[in-house]
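Need Cupin domain-containing protein's 3D structure for a figure. Predict it.
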Amino acid sequence: MSTSSLNIETPHETRPFKAHGHLDVVTLEGFTLGRGVFEPGWRWSEDVKPIAGTESCQTRHTGFCLSGQMTVRSDDGTELTVSPGDVVVIEPGHDAWTVGDEPCVLVDTGVAAYAVSD
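Structure prediction for Cupin domain-containing protein:
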């Protein structure tokens, strides 16, 4: 049995959004974890859509919220607001935006291909 450890404070990669934040990414033995910092004013359709090139986010997110708030609107119109301590599964096909004047920080296991620019 092997045991491995890395620290998110020294990520393998930082993926900047167009504006309003970034995603720190660590990959360890085939497992990818991201810490997204979504600053006030961040909105997927403005800050990540130009990177993704899709009409809505097509990534399945699984993770939890450390701080701040984010509202997610699915393509079918349903909305969910994520708050500190919430554990979430967000299916592909959504827009999202930061709520309020505090950055939303989310830890997400569904980020291997998220916000990757060519």
